[in-house]
Amino acid sequence: MKPFHYVRPAGLAEAAGAHGGRPGSAYLAGGTNLVDLMKLGVERPDTVVDIARLLPADVEATADGGVRVGAGVRNADLATHPVAGARCPALAQALLAGASAQLRNAATTGGNLLQRTRCGYFQDVSKACNKREPGSGCAALDGVNREHAVLGHSPLCVATHPSDLAVALSALDAEVEVTGADGVRRVPLDGFLRLPGEHPERDTTLGHGELVTAVVLPPGVFGVPSAYRKARDRASYAFALASAAAVLETRDGRISRVALAFGGLAHRPWRARVAEERLLGERPAEDVLRTAVDAELQAARPLRDNAFKVRLARNLAVDVLGRLAGSLPD
Ligand code: SF4
Question: Rounded distance, CA 223 to CA 71, Å?
């Protein structure tokens, strides 16, 4: 591992000064992704600023009845917090589907969103990767790309975002609270995580030196039927080949509210706006759900090895939506 300066500041302002927005600086919280990438030589910071003890670590109500989850809240703590569980099942289910119990004890809410792709070529410094080294090429395009994107990819990068939590947060209309030199701002999750486009080296819209300080859930997502389901190669400790998070309510036998997001298909959670629009006001019958989800997935452009993901995602989404509507058995 490349030698680096380790700094443990006393407060967030001091941390921002130590980081300085320099490309060679990195913030450290749970460390479950950054430290692995440093060992692999993928991340090579000169200065590591430890903010694990400085990040907000509370779950608190907001003035409008929503919930603010501090960026330092550990995944294991959030999964078992009263705001998750029965009050917001998709949140707890997504957290518990991620990683292992040991990692969930260390990993933080903010770090979960900021974790980097698990594309094998990104993690192998001997391979071409535009995300790791802009302009070097993308070994995955003509390589083994079974686990890569089918939606929203670019000729420069076909990676997927690995987070389960982010998929649930997308369906739950969460916002990301970002703190920087100009103060605090909130960004919808879908505006925080990026598609690769011309700049796959940028995973988020964070500015230099900015920090994720919290995730904010709106009041309307609590006590509403929601769910998260994930398909992977083995039963635990594996990233999603495809996943689906949904919120769904019915009134008089018709869908009165729906939100659907896919994971494992794109560089960020894929919010299924086309399907949502088609489903509003419809009966939640299986054929109706299937037609709407198929309309969303028309945009898919599978790679050589991953056409199976389109059908897998469709079946997951129909299953999740149907169970929430009560039109498919639990
Ligand atoms: Fe790198 Fe993206 Fe290509 Fe993977 S898919 S090798 S992360 S550029």
Answer: 23
Q: pLDDT tens string for the chain (330 positions)?
A: 899 999 999 998 899 889 988 889 999 999 999 999 999 999 999 999 999 999 999 999 999 999 999 999 999 999 999 988 889 999 999 999 998 889 999 999 999 999 999 999 999 999 999 999 999 999 999 999 999 999 999 999 999 999 999 999 999 999 999 998 888 999 999 999 999 999 999 999 998 878 999 999 999 999 999 999 999 999 888 899 999 999 999 999 999 999 999 999 999 999 999 999 999 999 999 999 999 999 999 999 999 999 999 999 999 999 999 999 987 777
Q: Look up the CATH number of the domain holding residue 35.
A: 3.30.43.10
Q: In the chain, how many domains are there?
A: 2
Rounded to the nearest angstrom, the distance between the alpha carbon of 179 and the centre of ligand 1 is 29
Q: Which residues line ligand 1 (CB under 6 A)?
A: 117, 119, 121-122, 129-131, 138-140, 148, 157-159, 200
- Among 54, 74, 91, identify where a domain stops: 54
Single pTM value for the model: 0.96
- Probe residue for ligand 1, chosen from 126, 131, 133, 160 as the CB with the greatest number of ligand atoms within 8 Å: 131
Range of the domain at 302: 229-325
> Which residues touch 164 (CB under 8 Å, ≥6 apart)?
94, 95, 97, 98, 228, 230, 240, 243, 263
176, amino acid identity: V
Task: Look up residue 186 and give its amino acid.
Answer: R
